[in-house]
TrEMBL record:
It comes from the Bacteria. This is STAS domain-containing protein. Coiled coil: none annotated. Residues 164-275 form the STAS domain. It comes from Microlunatus aurantiacus. PANTHER family: RSBT ANTAGONIST PROTEIN RSBS, RSBT ANTAGONIST PROTEIN RSBS-RELATED. SUPFAM superfamilies: SpoIIaa-like. InterPro entries: Bact_StressResp_Reg (IPR051932), RsbRD_N_dom (IPR025751), STAS_dom (IPR002645), STAS_dom_sf (IPR036513). CDD domains: STAS_RsbR_RsbS_like.
Length: 291
């Protein structure tokens, strides 16, 4: 998307555009109220309170007229993104945002028709200039809203994945990565990224990946686990995989995964003991301790 000026048509009279903008500003209160009434009549933005509706419609109206005057949509883009950040979490949909902008376009067009209906040549020139600009504004708001909505969705998805695959430091140079739930290709990719960041941050030498809570692993994910092991080794960390179910073990054998690259231990406790051995820790029993 570019910030090129909105085409405003061919104005033989340089005073026509200022007159148009001056009219929309002079009638701002009445036109904004008419627009708000039409929004309510169309049952849009019902998640907003009346006070919020008044604030937002005033801001949109002022930005709209400013774009008509200056020809630049940059300010409108910034406002559309800010508005999206506020209303997307409240469940406002894209069709509602597009709907209110189209309603404003129509309200203003009707106002221009009323003003210039006795001078049809001027009215045609005004509408020829207004309609392309209004359509460009509607498109700008819609695109900005969709882009922000997609960004929020991606951010939420990333947060959910991070919560579902935490990299936990257990002790110095030792990390645990418990995997719970379905491990698809996208989640496996993010798992690798988080794990490598964790290895670098904690200067880990051993990582225990526990897949006890993973119900199944397909060929793509299994091969991704192998690549994760290789990448971790390049970062200076050994990987121990624990919690292999009989079904997953059979899958790994069936699809021909190179098991020589995997250090597997039956359960998490055994994996931790092996990790401590690799780190050089020795578990000793104190005299008089009971089992």
């Amino acid at each position: 998307m570019t910030d090129d000026p909105v085409p405003v048509g061919s104005y033989a009279d340089d005073q026509l555009l200022p007159q148009l903008v001056a009219h929309l500003r002079e009638k701002r209160g009445r036109l904004r109220q008419e627009w708000a009434a039409r929004i309510q009549g169309a049952h849009l933005l019902q998640a907003m309170t009346p006070q919020e509706m008044a604030t937002e419609t005033t801001s949109v109206y002022d930005n709209y007229v400013e774009v008509l005057e200056t020809g630049s949509v940059e300010a409108l883009q910034h406002y559309a993104r800010d508005l999206s950040e506020r209303i997307i979490p409240r469940g406002v949909e894209t069709n509602e945002v597009v709907g209110i902008v189209l309603l404003l376009r129509d309200v203003l067009a009707r106002s221009l028709f009323e003003k210039y209906q006795q001078d049809m040549p001027t009215l045609y020139r005004v509408l020829d200039a207004y309609e392309p600009a209004a359509n460009r504004i509607a498109n700008t708001v819609a695109v900005s809203f969709v882009e922000e909505r997609e960004r929020v969705i991606r951010q939420q998805q990333d947060s959910i994945r991070e919560l579902s695959t935490p990299v936990l430091p257990v002790r110095e140079r030792l990390l645990i990565l418990p995997i719970i739930g379905v491990l698809d290709t996208e989640r496996a990719r993010q798992l690798t990224e988080q794990l490598l960041r964790g290895i670098r941050t904690h200067r880990a030498r051993v990582v225990v990946i526990d897949i006890t809570g993973a119900p199944a692993v397909d060929a793509a994910v299994a091969n991704h686990l192998v690549r994760t092991v290789d990448a971790s080794r390049l970062m200076g960390a050994s990987v121990i995989i624990t919690g292999l179910s009989p079904e997953i073990a059979q899958t790994l054998v069936t699809i021909g995964v190179d098991l020589s690259k995997m250090n597997t231990i039956g359960d998490l406790q055994g994996g931790l003991e092996e990790a401590e051995r690799l780190l050089g820790f020795v578990v000793t029993r104190q005299e008089g301790a009971t089992s």
